[in-house]
Amino acid sequence: SKEEYFMLKFYFIHFCDFRALAQTIERSATQRQISIDKLCFSLNTNTNETLTIFMNDIFKFCVNPWDASFLSELIFYRSGIDSNTVIQWSHTMMSRPEQQAFRRITNLDLSFNENIDDECMPILFECILHKLPNLETLDLSSTSITDKTCAAIHDFYQTHFALHNGQRKSCLSTVNVMRCNGVTKNGQQLLSAIFMQKFCPYNFVVHCIVDEHVCNVAINV
């Protein structure tokens, strides 16, 4: 119902406050804690952009986003979102003050959304760099991205994964572009070339398939 929709949104926006209150109340009794580490919106239709608006408000108004544990994994597998949704969410996160990064997000699954394409990738990777510093896994499989996104991924690592004072600017180590019809052997070669570079993360993994040839490569040193 509409009432439940707004109550749930309010809860996630103020999740940290509710968790602290619950822990205070229950500490002397059961020692139970609120533990939510994943939001899964798979197999949705995003009718009237309900999901787009719901998550956009969470990204915009979430209190203490750096400690929002419920955002650790964001699963939008076949959820009816498109490039405009990703652009909107990215701009919303980018609009928050510099120190308000979403540090708990480690996994972002955008797979099987055929209306996600190259258009949203520049702002998404900018958002990953500045607002998702601990993101480890990005799943773009079965979307409509092309070799252009593969080039953007290569450039992202080349530009931002060189060590700065012994540290990297991003934790992104796993990218999945399996079964993206717009990705050709040229795109696969661009991704594979990352492994040959000094800037390649030691734990880098890329999943790709072109013309029924699986490229499931990992490097661990």
Structure description:
With 221 residues, the protein is an alpha/beta fold. Helix content is 37%, strand content 12%. It contains 7 helices and 7 strands; from the N terminus they run ααβαβαβαβαβαββ. A 7-stranded mixed β-sheet has the order 1-2-3-4-5-6-7, covered by helices on one side. Strand 6 and strand 7 form a beta hairpin. Helix 3 packs parallel to helix 4 and helix 6 runs parallel beside helix 7. The longest helix has 14 residues. The chain is globular and about 45 Å long. The termini are far apart. The relative contact order is 0.10. The model has no long low-confidence stretch (mean pLDDT 83).
Order of helices and strands: HHEHEHEHEHEHEE
Number of DSSP helical runs: 7
Rg result: 18 Å
Biggest sheet overview: 7 strands, mixed
How many DSSP E strands?
7
Mass-distribution shape: globular
Given helix and strand content, the structural type is alpha/beta
Mean pLDDT, to the nearest integer, reads 83
Percentage of residues in helical conformation: 25-40%
Head-to-tail CA distance between termini: 51 Å
Kindly estimate the percentage of residues that lie in beta strands according to DSSP: 5-15%
Q: Which strand order do you get reading across the main beta sheet? A: 1-2-3-4-5-6-7
Q: Are there runs of 5+ residues with pLDDT below 50, and where? A: none
